[in-house]
Each structure stands twice: as structure tokens, then as C-alpha cells.
Amino acid sequence: MCGIVGYVGGKLASDIILDGLEKLEYRGYDSAGIAVQTENKIDIRKKVGRLQNLSESIQEKGIEGNLAIGHTRWATHGAPSDENSHPHYNSDMTIAVVHNGIIENYMELKKELLDKGYTFNSETDTEVIPKLLDLYEEEDFFKTIQKVLKMVRGSYALGILNVKYPDTIFCARKDSPLIVGKGEKENFIASDVPALLKYTNKVYYLENGELGIIKEDSVEFFDLDGNSVEKELHEIKWTMEQATKGGYSHFMLKEIFEQPKSIEDTLKRRISDKKEILFDDINLDIEKVKDIYIVACGTAYNAGLQGKFALQKIAKIKSDVDIASEFRYSDPFVDENSLVILVSQSGETLDTLAALRDSKAKGARTLAITNVIGSSIAREADDVIYTWAGPEIAVASTKAYTTQVTVFYMLALYFAKKKACIEEKEYNRILDNLLAVPKQVEQILAKDNEIMKMAEKMIDCQHGFFLGRGLDYSVAQEASLKMKEVSYMHTEAFASGELKHGTIALIEQDIPVLAITTQESLFEKSVSNIREVKARGAFVISITQEKNADLVKQVSDEVILIPDIDDLIAGITCVVPLQLMAYHVSTLRGLDVDKPRNLAKSVTVE
Length: 606
Ligand code: G6P
Hints:
The chain is built from 19 helices and 24 strands. It has 606 residues and is α/β, with parallel strands linked by helices. The chain has 3 domains: 3-242, Aminohydrolase, N-terminal nucleophile (Ntn) domain (Glutamine Phosphoribosylpyrophosphate, subunit 1, domain 1, 4-Layer Sandwich); 245-435, Glucose-6-phosphate isomerase like protein, domain 1 (Rossmann fold), CATH 3.40.50; 443-598, 3-Layer(aba) Sandwich (Rossmann fold), CATH 3.40.50. The chain has an 8-stranded antiparallel β-sheet with strand order 3-2-4-1-10-9-11-14, covered by helices on one side. A 6-stranded antiparallel β-sheet has the order 5-6-7-8-12-13. A hairpin with a 4-residue loop joins strand 9 and strand 10. 6-O-phosphono-alpha-D-glucopyranose (G6P) binds next to helix 8. 6-O-phosphono-alpha-D-glucopyranose is lined by residues 297-300, 344-346, 349, 352, 395-397, 599, 601-603.
């Protein structure tokens, strides 16, 4: 939520900030702003709306300077407006601040400042920071920053400029991500790696409670008391190519098409040539685990729904899935015999991070499934399994989801073997099916045109339903979320058998119903449910394996066939056409599919 970039070096800083902000727009795009150190002053420019507005303003009238901080905002405190945009500053504009996070005690701090005669230009929580830095400014500004940070409660990643330090970016972090990029005679700060990849792949990850002093030829780190901190320099393996659209019209489409590779990479990292699943680095005695809690938000939560299935059906371990923001307040029976699995693409979602901390405090073993190396959740969990999806830029998550589900299947097979509750033959059968997924996803992607034609029929639809039973229901939930996120069509996912207990009242002539029927044991019942909606006028698009084609065609208006695969694994492949469907409905409606309204990719507020 919100993206920060900072640059100090020999180049035109505004170019680098705009370029970096473009890579971080997935974190929010309500407004953008920049503060540049120019001769004896800080030049601040900020514009509501997309980054394009700021870029145009800078094109019209450039800002010279080699040191700057920039920000792209996802509004929390105060509506999107020029005034509420970052950077925020003190009244004589000698101090400028960009902030990602929330200052929870800003009301009381603001009152103190108002009492002292300060006036505010915005409704944001952030503005108290430059004002406090102004109020308490002392000879050594770095000491002032330490003092002020001890006064604020909440979360922050901060970039700070002071006109008296024209060669320095100050930065700090607590509960919102911040990295420092190390270049040759130039250095950077950023919320995330893609903003820096064009310039450097060497980064330091700031930890909670750490501050940095960043200059053209030096980076130094300290704790909140000003003690020096030694940090490890990490080399990022992602390439620039991975973080660009690479010929595709949108990131979402590129990321959907990357799935054969990202699933294969995720499998390859953990499966040996001898078909052993390599999770021995996970320091866990599975015999001791009495229950598993899967905790996540959004699409990662939906991946957890499939994960529950895999863990219960294959590894025979009682598993529950919870929404992170609810889990914490539901007094879960988590103890030292529980395994809590936190699923998060970004590894920074605040509710998921908080659930992790609560679970650890209760003595549970914690395992993260995440895509971002060095992210907060990856660092704080006892164990980590990375998904190898590469950078996911589109706000709507696709390849992260399928790689998360892939990890759950590997984990379930691994636990099952450890517990000796699976026969060798069954283990090999499921594993072979899993290994076939990348090829099958490729075959499904070849149907893109066919799926686009079906999407055309939904351009004007206001409402729609996704139906499924068992595992298919969890896929329906993800498919429905995808459609809502990017096309703004109101859709609901329903367990097919539950539909007749109320919701069927909403089925009317031509309403689209996307029915998923991949589970053989539930097949006949699912087909009956399709007949029920069809009889009430629904326009039915079914998704099923080729082996079911004949019967499903009889009850559907359209059918998307996926290659035959074991029912247990079908959840990974059958979501792919539904991702494409959501993508096409969105783009056919002329919407900004990569940056849907009101959303942000990384949600670092509760
Ligand atoms: C936001 C994004 C979703 C994502 C969710 C969880 O809502 O828009 O796409 O699934 O956060 O994010 P995480 O990074 O924890 O997987």
C-alpha cells in the first residue's frame, strides 16, 4: 500500500523517481508526488490521479536535481487529492517526507502540534511527521528523526529530506517494507525490488526499527538509538525482463501466460530427479502437529482453500482456513501442537503478518508460503517455502495463486509420506499428475481466443455466478474474486448444492453461470445443479475435463474443456481459463485491468 522511491547519484533524479514509481504503481495509484533537492531548497510537485499526471507536469516544467524522494499513494487518511498526496512538508518546506503505513496516534500528535500553532495542509496522518521533525529539530537532524520516531505509533516506511543535508536521504522502517539499493556512485531506497532492478540488483532489507543514511557513495544503518547496524547485501535474481510487460498488452495477461513456467519452477525447486519432495529444511515434526491453520487474505486465502483440501485428503491432517483479519479476533485454538501456514504473495500483508506474530506468541510453529524473498513474513516465520512465480505486478493475482496451490500439493504429499499414510503407488500417481500441470496449463492457454469469444457474451452483464462442489467450489471462489476485481461485474461463488437454499431466487433469464465440474465423485450431483439453473434461464458456461465433455455439453450453453487430470489436482488447471475470462471481460469493457479501481496489490494497513 503506497510506494516509495528515493534516489541520490549523478543522474537527473526526477527521471529515476518517475520510472521507479511506475514500477510501484501496483501499490496504489490515487496520486503521486516527488520532492527534489535543488539549490538551497526542496522542490515539491504532487498530483492527484495516475502517475501520468505527475509525469506530464514534470515534462512541462522539469525539476533539476540529483537527489529526490517520490511516492505513489493508496488513500487511507484523506481522499485522493493534490493536498493529501505525498510528499508532506513543514511550513517553510525545508523538510519533506514520503510515508507508507499508518501513524495510529496521529490525532493526539496533531492536537499537540495545533496547540503549538502549527497548521496543516492535508487530512493525512503522515503530515504530523514533517511537523514534528520541524518542532523538535536540533543541530543533528538524525537525532531528531530518532526522537520523533519514538513518539509515533503505527507502521511506517519513510523517506525524509532536509534542505540542510543536500546530499542525504534519511529513511526508516517499521512494519512497512523498505529496501536500500546499492549502485555505483548512486544509491536508492524503494518499497519493492522492481523499482530498482533497472539500476541495481544489490539490496539491503531494512528491518523493523532500523534507519538509514543514504548518500551518493555511502549507505549506513542504525537502530532507533543511533547505534550502528551491520547489514548483509543481498543479490536479487529477478531480471528486468521479468518485471516488464515483455510484449504483452498487460501484466495480467503476461502473468497468466507465465504460469507453465512459474509452476514448473516452483515444482523443480522442491522435487528431485528421483521424485523425492525436498522439504527437509522445514524444521518440523509432523507427527506432533495435531491441526493446521491456513491464514491469508484475498487470493492467497483462496489458495489456502485448496490447500486445506490437499492437506486433509492427502496428508489426513485436520486443517482450517481463515481470513487473516478475522483469525486474530476469533480466539483460535492455536498452541504448540498447531502448525500455522501463512500464505502471502507479497509477504507484507499486515493482517497476515499480525496473524503470524500472534500464532508465534501462542507457541505455534509457523510456515510461510510466499513469493518475495526477504519479505517480512518470510523473515519472521519459522520456516519458508517460496513460490517461484517471479515478480507479480498486476494487482489481480494469477501466477502467485497457482504456485501457492502447487506448494500445498507438494506439502501434502511430503507430510503424507512422512506420516506413512500414503501408499507408494498413490503418491507416485498424484505426483505424476502434479508434474503434468505445466504442460496442461500450456494447452489451456492455447484456448485463449475461444475464451475471449465467450467473454464477449458477458460484456454487458451486471451479475453472474460461479458454481462448484468440493474442490471446485474453492476454485469458484477464486474465479469469482478475479472477475469482480478486474471487470467490476458483481459475481458470487456458491457451493452448487447450497444454491437452492436461497440464492437460486436470483437466477433469471440469461444470467451467466460459470459451472466447474471436475470432481468425478460429485459429477452427477453437479450436473443436476446445472440443470436447475438452466431450467430457470441461466446462460451456462461449464469448465470440465475432456473426459466429461459429452454429458456436460448437453446441459451447458458453452463448455471449456481442460485436459484430463486427476480430480485432486484439477483445481490448479481449471482456474486458468477463468483467469483469462476475467481478463477478457475487463479489457473488452475498456477497463484498466492491471490497476482496478480502489485496489492495491500490497495491503500494509489493517
Ligand atoms: C490484495 C491484493 C490481492 C491479494 C491480497 C493478499 O488484496 O489485491 O491480489 O491476494 O492483497 O496479498 P498477499 O500479498 O498477502 O498475497
